[in-house]
Amino acid sequence: MTDAAIIVAAGRGTRAKGQTAKQWQMLGGRRVADWTIDAIQRAGLSPIIVVLHPDDMAVSGLPKEVIRVAGGASRDASVRAGLAELDPAVVRNVLIHDVARPCVPLSVVAAVRAALDHSEAAAPGLAVTDALWRADDDHVSGVQSREGLLRAQTPQGFRLAPLIAAHAAHPGGAADDVEVARAAGMSVRIVAGHEDNLKITLPEDFARAEAILNRQQDRSMDIRLGNGFDVHAFEPGDGCWLCGIKVPHDKALKGHSDADVGMHAVTDAIYGALAEGDIGRHFPPSDPQWKGAESHIFLAHAVALAKTKGYRISNIDCTLICEQPKVGPHASAMQARMADITGMQADRISIKATTSEKLGFTGREEGIAAIATATLISA
Ligand SMILES: Nc1ccn([C@@H]2O[C@H](COP(=O)(O)OP(=O)(O)OP(=O)(O)O)[C@@H](O)[C@H]2O)c(=O)n1
Ligand SMILES: C[C@](O)(CO)[C@H](O)COP(=O)(O)O
User: What is the ipTM of this complex?
Assistant: First the structure.
């Protein structure tokens, strides 16, 4: 059983103004939605449903793992559309989060999940620290006790099956899912919210959110570099696998796997950045199951390991060293294939080649060498 997430992103952000809905506006170099999805992915929730406005269903740049669902005219209708994608036989808990809360600390998500071990529902709240007034136009018409009042945040977490039933029974118009759950008699445990977890609502909230993200990143950013180097000898054949593309040649590369020397160097660069050894440690050549293996298996493993350890790969640079075959005509296809395997943007992957001026084993065309660098950033 898993803990799933629904990110509601089908609103139009009218109060935030702007040319596009607030979730597609830029914040510190990325869209609001990218920060939010990233935070929820880092929290380890899966699957992640992103509920989009019908006009936004084809929006580019969302991680390929997220499931896109068309939302409704109100927040609760959008949540119901997301819930319809989840199977209570597979998913135990669901955390529902506003796309407009991109700075949610991992500790808040973790507190909600931990509370769900013992409660059927849990949500973050923050004390009201200012005095409260009632207003009559621009004059104070009374005061409101703040005793027992909390400011509600998301993600709000629930046991999936009773929440689906609660939404089915609700007449609509709820401000949040806690309201829906309580109307169905569910008991909701309160956990500590966080001041960083603001909901971008008004134009001035973007600057506040950006300052929070900058502070969070300054505190947590960890940049790691790794390098990888590999060599494979030629043998008779009809082409070489290089960075995921079979390049026609009058020779092949010899190896236990498909001998993709470029992909091996890149994979080792990622393992190196993580201080996780090399391909041989994870896929021993002595193990017959890896004989003839396609090297994308190794690269995908290194990428997944980076993610599990809390890193995203910022860029990769790989140089193939050979006289023949010529790499230039195939470099774009290699870049696209490597992007496909790693889930990275193609413009963050560089594949290039050099000769060794006919010197050494590459110069004598006895084999191909590859050197690669990868930069990993704490996610
Ligand atoms: N039909 C709707 C309305 C809202 N939301 C989502 O619910 C969250 C909280 O809503 P709010 O902050 O009010 O967002 P908007 O409705 O987009 O903003 P506004 O009310 O200013 O138009 C947001 O993540 C929003 O995208 C949604 O998925 N579907
Ligand atoms: C769910 C919510 O974020 C809790 O604070 C909030 O109710 C949704 O936003 P809105 O501004 O009330 O539409």
Answer: 0.94
